[in-house]
C-alpha cells in the first residue's frame, strides 16, 4: 500500500469498518510514515469531537430500532435469536449517520450567509482544538520551526511570527479546515488564554471586523495577500492587539 491507498482507507479504518488484513497493513504503514500517522491522528480527533459534541450524537430510540427490524422482515419474537444477523444493517445506518453529520457540516444550512458560516466554523475549530487536546501538530515557540513545518502541507506559505515581546508568544501550529479549504492554524498564548489564528491566502482587501459569537471574540482581517481569522475567549481589545501585530 502506498500513501494514496492509505489515505483512501483511513476513514474506514478510523471508523472501525476496515477488514482485519487491510487494518493490519495500514497500521504497519502508520508506524513508518509520519505524514499518514498525522493524518490518522487528526481524523481520530475529528471523529472524537463529533462524538462528544452535544446534540450531534444520540442513540436511536427503541421504536426506531423495532421499526428497522420490521423493515428487515423480522418479527419481534425472533429478534433476539437473529439480532446478530442485523449487524450489517446497523453498520449501514451508522455510516449513513456519519455521512449526514459530515454533509451538514459541509453544506451550509439554508439562510446562513457565507460570513456567518465562516464565523461558526472558526469558533467550532477553536473549541475543538481545545476540547480534544489537538491544539498543535507542531509545538514550538520558534517561528523557524513552525513555518517550515507547513511546507508541502498547504498550497501557500503562512507568515509565521512570534510576538512574545508584545505579550503574545507563539506556541505552535497545526493544519485545520475552514470555509471549505485547508488553512494554517497558528496558536498563540496571552496570559492563560489560547488564541487560534487561522490563515489562508486571499486576494483583495477587507476591512477588519470584530465579532462576538457564543462568548468568543473573533477578528477577521487581511494583510499581504493573506486572510487572518483570530478566535479566542480573550476580550476583543486584547485580541485586536494581536490582529494589529499580524497585519504589520
Ligand atoms: Zn504514508
Verbal overview:
It is built from nine helices and seven strands; from the N terminus they run αααααααβαββββββα. It is α+β, with helices and mostly antiparallel strands. It has three domains: 50 residues, no CATH class; 45 residues; 134 residues, 2-Layer Sandwich (Phosphorylase Kinase, domain 1). The protein has a seven-stranded antiparallel sheet with strand order 1-2-3-4-7-6-5, with helices on both faces. The longest helix is centred in the middle third of the chain and has 20 residues. The site of zinc ion has 6 residues, from helix 1 and helix 3.
Features:
248 residues; alpha+beta; Phosphorylase Kinase, domain 1; 3 domains; 9 helices; 46% helix; globular; binds zinc ion
Return the structural class: alpha+beta
The CATH superfamily name of the largest domain is MucB/RseB, C-terminal domain
Strand content: 15-25%
The hetero molecules present are: zinc ion
The helix content, as a percent range, equals 40-55%
Query: Strand-and-helix sequence, N→C?
Result: HHHHHHHEHEEEEEEH
Given as residue ranges, the uncertain stretches (5+ residues, pLDDT < 50) are 76-83
CATH class group of the largest domain: Alpha Beta
**CATH-defined topology of the largest domain:** Phosphorylase Kinase, domain 1
> How many helical elements?
9
Amino acid at each position: 500500500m502506498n500513501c494514496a491507498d492509505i489515505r483512501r482507507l483511513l476513514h474506514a479504518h478510523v471508523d472501525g469498518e476496515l477488514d482485519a488484513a487491510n487494518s493490519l497493513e495500514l497500521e504497519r504503514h502508520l508506524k513508518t510514515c509520519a505524514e499518514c500517522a498525522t493524518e490518522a491522528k487528526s481524523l481520530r480527533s475529528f471523529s472524537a469531537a463529533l462524538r462528544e459534541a452535544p446534540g450531534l450524537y444520540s442513540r436511536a430510540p427503541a421504536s426506531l430500532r423495532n421499526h428497522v427490524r420490521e423493515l428487515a422482515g423480522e418479527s419481534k419474537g425472533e429478534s433476539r435469536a437473529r439480532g446478530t444477523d442485523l449487524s450489517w444493517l446497523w453498520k449501514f445506518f451508522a455510516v449513513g449517520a456519519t455521512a449526514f453529520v459530515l454533509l451538514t457540516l459541509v453544506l451550509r444550512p439554508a439562510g446562513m450567509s457565507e460570513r456567518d458560516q465562516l464565523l461558526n466554523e472558526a469558533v467550532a475549530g477553536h473549541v475543538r482544538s481545545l476540547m480534544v487536546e489537538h491544539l498543535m501538530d507542531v509545538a514550538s515557540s520558534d517561528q523557524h520551526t513552525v513555518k517550515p513545518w507547513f511546507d508541502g502541507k498547504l498550497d501557500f506559505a503562512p507568515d509565521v511570527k512570534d510576538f512574545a515581546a508584545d505579550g503574545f508568544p507563539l506556541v505552535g501550529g497545526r493544519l485545520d479546515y475552514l470555509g471549505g479549504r485547508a488553512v494554517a492554524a497558528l496558536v498563540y498564548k496571552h496570559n492563560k488564554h489560547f488564541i487560534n489564528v487561522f490563515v489562508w491566502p486571499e486576494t483583495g482587501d477587507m476591512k477588519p471586523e470584530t465579532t462576538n459569537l457564543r462568548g468568543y471574540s473573533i477578528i477577521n482581517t487581511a494583510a499581504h495577500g493573506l486572510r487572518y481569522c483570530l478566535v479566542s475567549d480573550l476580550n476583543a481589545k486584547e485580541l485586536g492587539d494581536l490582529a494589529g501585530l499580524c497585519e504589520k
